[in-house]
Amino acid sequence: MIKLYGGTFSRANIVKWYLEELQIPYEFVLIDLATGEHFQPDYLAIHPFAKVPTIVDETFHLWETGAILTYLAGKYDPTIATPEQLAIVNQWVIFANTTLSDGLFNPKMQAKETPLLLSKLDGIVTGKHYLIGNHLSAADVMLASFISYAFLMIPDFDISAYPNLTNYLQQMRDRPAFKSTMARPE
Fold first, then answer.
1. Less crowded by CB within 10 Å, the N or C end of the chain?
2. Could you count the other beta carbons within 10 Å of the beta carbon of residue 173?
3. What pLDDT score does 8 carry?
4. What are the per-10-residue average pLDDT scores of the chain (186 residues)?
5. Considering its fold, how many domains does the chain have in total?
6. What is the pLDDT, as a whole number, of residue 186?
């Protein structure tokens, strides 16, 4: 069984969402970041930088959200059948974690990059339920997670000018696995 180490409100929730979508049994190991549990020797043995999330799949340890998602996609997602499909998933995961993240969360880049990125994404998701093919993938999980985080972290964040992106995100947020892992309690 996969062990997923993470904090209460951390990027581990992104991994949880994907694990639940894939219906992979996992054990969530809560790391109390407030008390410094991530700096304890046992945890440092599996993540030398003392961050979350980390997974342990049998004897294999892996950290970094994007790396974990693409690993899970390659090993457990039955809709990923070729190296090219996995590369496209990886492309979107990296895009969300770097280009989109910088454009949304870097104050020096927000004014210029956020409208450009959201406009392009609005066009890309036009008429689509998913970024790639006919099934949810790690690409959707990462993209929808970062856009959802923007609503929590950026005052007055609004995507209503991008109706296709708004619809796409709502479809992701309506998924039971999203609601059980990513939605913050009111």
1. C
2. 15
3. 87
4. 94 97 97 95 95 97 97 96 96 97 95 96 96 95 97 93 97 96 69
5. 2
6. 41
Same domain, 108 and 37: no
Burial category of 102 from C-beta neighbours within 10 Å (exposed 0-12, middle 13-18, buried 19 and up) = middle
- Domain-embedded: residue 38: yes
CATH number reported for the structural domain that contains residue 30 in this entry: 3.40.30.10
Torsion of CA 123, 129, 181, 52, to 10 degrees: -50
Q: In what order do the strands lie in the sheet with 54-57?
A: 26-30, 2-6, 54-57, 60-63
Q: Identify whether residues 14 and 93 lie together within a single domain.
A: no
List the domain range (segments joined by +) for residue 62.
2-76
State the Cα–Cα distance between residues 161 and 151, nearest whole angstrom: 15
Cut 0.70: pTM above it: yes
